[in-house]
Amino acid sequence: MRTTTVDEAVAGIGDGASLMVGGFMGVGTPERLIDELVRQGRRALTLIANDTAMPGVGVGKLIAAKAVRKVIASHIGLNPQTQAQMIAGEIEVELVPQGTLIERIRAAGHGLGGVLTPTGVGTVVEQGKRKLEVDGREYLLETALHADFALVQAFLADYLGNLTYVLTARNFNPVIAMAAATVIVDAEHVVPVGMIPPDQVMTPAPLVDFLVART
To answer: Per the confidence metrics, is the pTM higher than 0.85?
Structure first.
């Protein structure tokens, strides 16, 4: 794990990269990293997140900047800019049921090829997917979902990279930290090693590649 600045951390994310971003309607989203992606003018990103937040909030800033080529999310209903870009053919949107989305990410983090779920059987969700029968019930095979980068927001980090979260800001953050090739963390507070009790560590240091220093 290396401590770095926000501009250096984002400089390693190239155009066309796939990003998993923590947050639920902007809560628990690493805003400094998102702002820096917009400032550096990234393009053609694949965004994997629970949602696209709202205009001017969280990953909604990436949508507004037209930095995203494809979105994989559970809903886009509160961001009219995402909807407008989708209708105009400027952005590809893959909608995934929320539970299925997080399970696909979790599967990647645990080294699994995918998960079996009954969600979507008999609907448009099953189009183009394998169906398997287990004990007389049909399931869809949903493949694991990986990313080049995970952008994580934590409440506390120590200088080894151990992380903890607070309340609902935890949401997808611990899971995406396991499913990406490179994990970049922005924490609200960075504390000396030993300040976070071991049983309160929610994301252990070996998963973290870069920790953005507070200035």
So the answer is: yes
